[in-house]
Amino acid sequence: MTDRVSLDTHLQEVRRGTVVLGCLQILQTPGYGYKLLEELAQRGFTTDANTLYPLLRRLEKQGYLTSEWNTDEARPRKFYRTSDAGTSLATTLTAEWRSLSTAIASLTASEN
Amino acid sequence: MTTTLTHRYIAASTKNLGAASESDVRAELEGSIADAIDARVEQGIERTDAERAVLTELGDPAILAAGYADRPLHLIGPRHYLTWLRLLGILLATVPPITFIGAALVESLSNDSIGEIIAAGITAGLSAAMHVAFWVTVVFAVLERLGAATRGHWNVDRLPDYPRSNVDRASSIASLSGLTLLAVAVCWDSFIGFARLDAEPIAILNPDLWPWAISGLFTLIAARAVLSVRILTVGPWTTRMAIVNTTLAILFISLIATLLGRGELINPELVLAAIDAGASRDIVRVLALVAGLATVGFASWSIAIGWRGTVNSTNR
């Protein structure tokens, strides 16, 4: 029971930052909340709706996303798009992730 | 067709957001929930079941609301928790026992049975403990919500210089205990009465001091308490804090001295009764002298620890 809980916590810790990176990359083409949620899940960044929706607003407030209401369809939707600042954040995060992944690879390589 | 469950959910997760963002969040959340329900309906799920499932998956609206408002989901976070715990521990270990002894002493003047004396002490001690726990927690919960500005960036220079900053800490804690006791004593005197007149309790302080002079006194006590809490949570004395502290102490002296000079500090009923009972008229002068000396002593001590703390922290 405790093992199960602590395993979940560790996995969550590893995944935490990746959702932001996923959002920034996917929203290079504008998208709205639910569609983004599905797309993230499809691409392996499973996240909860109640984490994602506030996160989008926070990223917008920090200037990494811009938003626009689209009322062309029957259901008005708020479309988010990655800003220039967001693109450069995504580049930085990706570089960081690559260097981490190299570091992890070197750990397992030295083990064998 | 959205039904009442969705509306109730949205209302619960968007309240307290502020008018500007509320309608925007509401419209967006409405769309997102409707999208999620539609996706499930397309998979052949009954609409009402789909709605229930979608809202269940979104979870407690209070969590979502906190996410939107960027609000902490805890009363006191790791930043203040240890300080809160230590301060509460020290105050709870000192204030209630002292209140217990004080209340029992007062009660023992009235020829009550030992049982009544102990009961009065326990009641007063318990209520002092409740007040201490409640108000200390309120202050820290407010600090938590005022946010990051209170502590600033940590660097090695802020490492406590072992014996010295313990002095700061100890004198802050002593000040807080003293202020709490003073506040409790003033309230106790006003509502219950320290002195006894024909076995009836009577206040030592003039009841006419309510509300203005007493409010002034409590404002000074609260301001001084804020300084002490700042020393405990943020760091050492600064010149500006010592100046504020000195101003507070001087205001305290002038408040008490003015009241003493006008003969308004002590309950006139009590003075008359003492003179009737055969005390010499000097009793007023003696009481005034004792109160005046205590005030000046208390204030000078406060001024001194402020400047000593400032000298210590700038000499590093």
UniProtKB/TrEMBL annotation, chain A:
Domain Transcription regulator PadR N-terminal intervals: 25-88
Gene3D superfamilies assigned: Winged helix-like DNA-binding domain superfamily/Winged helix DNA-binding domain
InterPro entries: Metal_resp_DNA-bind_regulator, Tscrpt_reg_PadR_N, WH-like_DNA-bd_sf, WH_DNA-bd_sf
PANTHER family: PADR-FAMILY TRANSCRIPTIONAL REGULATOR (PTHR33169), TRANSCRIPTIONAL REGULATOR RV3488 (PTHR33169:SF14)
Name under which the protein is recorded: PadR family transcriptional regulator
TrEMBL record, chain B:
Keywords of the record: Membrane, Transmembrane, Transmembrane helix
Superkingdom per UniProt: Bacteria
Keyword check for Transmembrane helix: yes
Residues annotated as transmembrane: 84-105, 117-143, 173-197, 209-229, 241-263, 283-307
NCBIfam families in alphabetical order: perm_prefix_1
Name the UniProt record assigns to this protein: Uncharacterized protein
Organism the protein comes from: Cryobacterium melibiosiphilum
Lineage summary: Bacteria, Bacillati, Actinomycetota, Actinomycetes, Micrococcales
